[in-house]
Structure formats: structure tokens, C-alpha cells
Design goal:
284 residues; alpha/beta; five-stranded mixed β-sheet; 10 strands; globular
């Protein structure tokens, strides 16, 4: 059996393939497995509490895991150790989620590939290698236009009383906005970036509100400024986006792209299916 997974900070999608026929055996979703945000014990428990994975753990011969927080040697080492302790007969391959995004979006063709989900990132793929204009420093300093980025801005606007009154009333009815509760989730609990991203659903529910439209537009403009324009590519270069934020707000994203004389080629909400097709037809 071969396991292939696309993992973010909020969730990880897994698909099992028969190693010979490449036939799909099962799909399953776990909680996020970001080694930069969760301890080894938490990461291990999230896998061990998934019945399908544990049931077949000795039959797994290869694991290909592409995840958030796996862009450094430290993150890769942590997850390799976690997986090796569970899938004891498997060869373990751990790479950053950016590589999975490239495989899912463009395969082997040059393109700019972007992720906008719980976190955000981008790269230019030249057909052979990934090039990034800057190393991501995560949700506190970067992650422009991501779920956690917008979550922070919603909370700040609420507390600074910058939200329109009607929006603030809706926001209060949807979330526990007690200061102690928010600070506990941000500074004492695991996965604070995923917690911040839970506020993003509010934007979707109020997508037509001018306040939300303006917030989204400004966030996407920041993303283009820092994550796309520095590659200095023109309209002839395909641009792909991966992730739920990009998917649900594609109309605003496309307008921002047009303002920079660029065009979005495609937006893929869940890359796992495209990733599987890539693995079925290519040696990795």
C-alpha cells in the first residue's frame, strides 16, 4: 500500500493506493499535521486516532506526505520520526506543501503556484525546480491573505471598533469574543493559526458586505505585492491558486489579478485528487 497525503495546519487529506495497480483503496481526513505548530505527541495522536490509517499501518510500504511546516529540515525530521514510528515497514518521504501544490496544479510545466488556505505561500516553478522569492516565516509575520491573516484582522477590527455596527453584531453572535478566551487560544493552546482561520468562515457568510469585500481586496493586494509581483513574470506565465480562501473568493482574487495586468489560470480547492493523478503517472 502507498499513502499519499496533502496536509495543512487545519486538516490533512490522505489517499491509499494499491502499490501495484495504483487503484484507490480508501480516503480519509485527519486533523492538521504541522510540525511547526504541534508537538510530536499531538502529531502522533492525530494519526493514531484515525482508524483506517492504524488498521493498515503494517501494510504501508511508502508514505508521501506534503505538508505545511515541512519547508525546513527540522520540520521534515519531526514528521519523518512520527510516521516511521507508526508505519514501521514504510519508506517515508516528507516534503513541503508547495511541492504538492505544484504537482497538483501544473505538473511539470512552468508556472507561478500559490497557496491561500489556513496559511499562504507562493513559488515559481520553472519546470524542474521550485524558486521562492522569500522563505515563509509563518502566521505571525507573513501568511498574507490566508485564513489566519483575515482572522487576525477581523478580531482587531472588532476590538478597535473599526467594524461597521451591523457586522460587529453578527460577529458577536457567531464567536466567543471574550478577551481571556481569545488569548487562551492564541497563546496557550496548540494550533493558534488554525484557530485564527476559523474566523474566516464569517467572511464567506458575509461575502457581499462592502466591509468584507474591502478586507478581502486589501489582503489579496498584499499577497500579490509580496508573493507574486517579485517574480517579475508577465501575463504569459500561468498562475495557479490552491486552497479554500482562494476558491471561495475567486471573483475578488481575479479582479485584483486584473489590476496588475495578470490572469489567474485556475483555482483548485482541494489538490489531493490532482496530486494522486500525478503520482499515478509519474515516478517521484
Amino acid at each position: 500500500m502507498i499513502l499519499i497525503a496533502d496536509g495543512g495546519s487545519t486538516k490533512a487529506d490522505w489517499i491509499a493506493l494499491d502499490s501495484t495497480s495504483k487503484e484507490e483503496l480508501f480516503k480519509v481526513r485527519t486533523m492538521g499535521l504541522n510540525p511547526e505548530m504541534s508537538s510530536v505527541d499531538v502529531l502522533r495522536d492525530r494519526v493514531l486516532h484515525t482508524f483506517q490509517l492504524v488498521q493498515h499501518k503494517e501494510s504501508v510500504k511508502k508514505v508521501f506526505f506534503y505538508g505545511a511546516g515541512c519547508g525546513t529540515a527540522g520540520g521534515i525530521k519531526i514528521l519523518k520520526g512520527v510516521f516511521k514510528s507508526i508505519f514501521i515497514n514504510a519508506d517515508i518521504h516528507v516534503d513541503e506543501d508547495m511541492l504538492a501544490a505544484v504537482y497538483a496544479a501544473t505538473g511539470k510545466n512552468p508556472a507561478i503556484v500559490c497557496i491561500i488556505g489556513t496559511g499562504s505561500n507562493s513559488c515559481y516553478f520553472d519546470g524542474k525546480m521550485i524558486h521562492q522569492n522569500v522563505v515563509s516565516l509563518g502566521y505571525i509575520l507573513m501568511d498574507e491573505a490566508s485564513g489566519n491573516y483575515f482572522g487576525k484582522r477581523l478580531i482587531r477590527d472588532y476590538y478597535y471598533q473599526k467594524m461597521p455596527q451591523n457586522i460587529a453584531q453578527k460577529f458577536e453572535s457567531n464567536f466567543n469574543l471574550d478577551a481571556d478566551f481569545i488569548k487562551k487560544n492564541l497563546y496557550r493552546e496548540s494550533d493558534p493559526n488554525a484557530y485564527l482561520a476559523t474566523f474566516a468562515k464569517f467572511m464567506l457568510e458575509n461575502k457581499e458586505e462592502p466591509y468584507v469585500q474591502s478586507l478581502m481586496k486589501k489582503g489579496f493586494e498584499k499577497f500579490f505585492e509580496y508573493r507574486i509581483l517579485p517574480y517579475q513574470k508577465g501575463v504569459e506565465t500561468p498562475i495557479y491558486f490552491i486552497g479554500s480562501i482562494a476558491h471561495y473568493f475567486r471573483d475578488i482574487l481575479e479582479k485584483v489579478a486584473q489590476s496588475y495586468n495578470l490572469k489567474i489560470t485556475d483555482v483548485i480547492q482541494r489538490p489531493i485528487d490532482n496530486l494522486i493523478e500525478f503520482h499515478k503517472t509519474n515516478e517521484v
